[in-house]
Amino acid sequence: MTGPTIGNLRVNGAILRYEVRGHGPLLLLIPGGSGGAASFDGIADDLAAEYTVATYDPRGLSRSPLDDPAAEQTVAEHADDALRIVDLLSPGEPARVFGTSSGAIAALHLLTVRPERLERVVAHEPPVVEVLPDVLEHRALLARVGETLRTQGLMPAMAVFAAGLRKGGDTPGPPAQVALPPQAAARAERTMADLPYFVGRIVPAFMSYVPDVDRLEALSERLVLACGQDSRGELPYRPAAFLAERLGAELRHFPGGHTGLTTHPAEFGELLRKAFRA
């Protein structure tokens, strides 16, 4: 199979690098905050047999530079970036959109503000912690992460953040030995380079976002909420489960945990295909 077509799109305050594969209705894949278009390498080609698959590096990440590297980030602006790609690649027809983690938050916001441009949205573990009844604990976590980043640096802040995402803030045991596909292992260096921006800009902006739950309820027939089957009890799982119950919707379970897209790409891609057909 030939490689993707690569383009650059000028948006407000940034240039987005995007990739396009395949033919058919547009399927836009929005990555999480510490990943870029490459995080979809394991599923994009297979999905391109059925869709025009567009992936991109969100503003400030990887190969999508900001005009002002110090610019504050907002969910609304990231969602507008996704809309610009939809308008570019599918001007006459609504698109299907998949987002994971912070990308799922951008997808939720886009659904609430421009539903006519979206056929269906699959949101995988959007960490919209503001909907949770124990939100004060999660606000305190974000404050600790920010303070640790300022006073101790990146890796201590990441440790605080990671501990807060575990089941009940569990003390971590030995790291799980997961054999990543070669492409995923090769992305590690770029992911590490993006971590300061992710922890310092994306995490505080996105995890303080308050979704319009009433609007999502009105649009629930276009929304699929999904979680990792191994994520139960962890913080990224809980908002999607809460929203599914509030909206009276089925909560779909995908293989793996929060990064199941990377650890189980074949099974993940097949379930994603089914979610858009249903």
User: What's the helix count?
Assistant: 11
Strand count: 8
CATH architecture: 3-Layer(aba) Sandwich
Query: Which residues form runs of ≥5 with pLDDT under 50?
Result: 169-180
Determine the CATH superfamily: Alpha/Beta hydrolase fold, catalytic domain
* Content of β-strand: 15-25%
Overall, the morphology is: globular
The computed structural class is: alpha/beta
Gap between N and C termini: 28 Å
* Helix-strand topology string: EEEHEHEHEHHHHHEHEHH
Helical content stands at: 40-55%
Spatial strand sequence of the major β-sheet: 1-2-4-3-5-6-7-8
What do the pLDDT scores average to? 91
Radius of gyration: 17 Å
Integer tally of domains: 1
Text of the CATH class: Alpha Beta
Would you tell me which CATH topology applies? Rossmann fold
Largest sheet: number of strands, sense, barrel closure: 8 strands, mixed
SSE diagram, text form:
Elements: E1 5-11, E2 14-21, E3 26-30, H1 41-47, E4 52-56, H2 75-89, E5 95-100, H3 102-113, E6 118-124, H4 135-151, H5 154-165, H6 182-186, H7 188-207, H8 213-218, E7 223-228, H9 237-247, E8 251-254, H10 260-263, H11 265-277
Parallel strand pairs: 3-4, 3-5, 5-6, 6-7, 7-8
Antiparallel strand pairs: 1-2, 2-4
Helix pairs in contact: 1-11, 2-3, 4-5, 4-7
Descriptive report:
- There is one protein chain.
- The chain contains eleven helices and eight strands.
- By secondary structure, the chain is α/β, with parallel strands linked by helices.
- It has a single domain (5-277), classed as Rossmann fold.
- It has helices at 41-47, 75-89, 102-113, 135-151, 154-165, 182-186, 188-207, 213-218, 237-247, 260-263, 265-277, and strands at residues 5-11, 14-21, 26-30, 52-56, 95-100, 118-124, 223-228, 251-254.
- The radius of gyration is 17 Å and the shape is globular.
- It has an eight-stranded mixed β-sheet, sandwiched between helices.
- Helix content is 44%, strand content 17%.
- Helix 1 packs across helix 11 (265-277) and helix 4 (135-151) packs across helix 7 (188-207).
- InterPro entries: AB_hydrolase (IPR050471), AB_hydrolase_1 (IPR000073), AB_hydrolase_fold (IPR029058).
- Pfam families: Abhydrolase_1.
- GO terms for molecular function: hydrolase activity.
- This is Alpha/beta hydrolase.
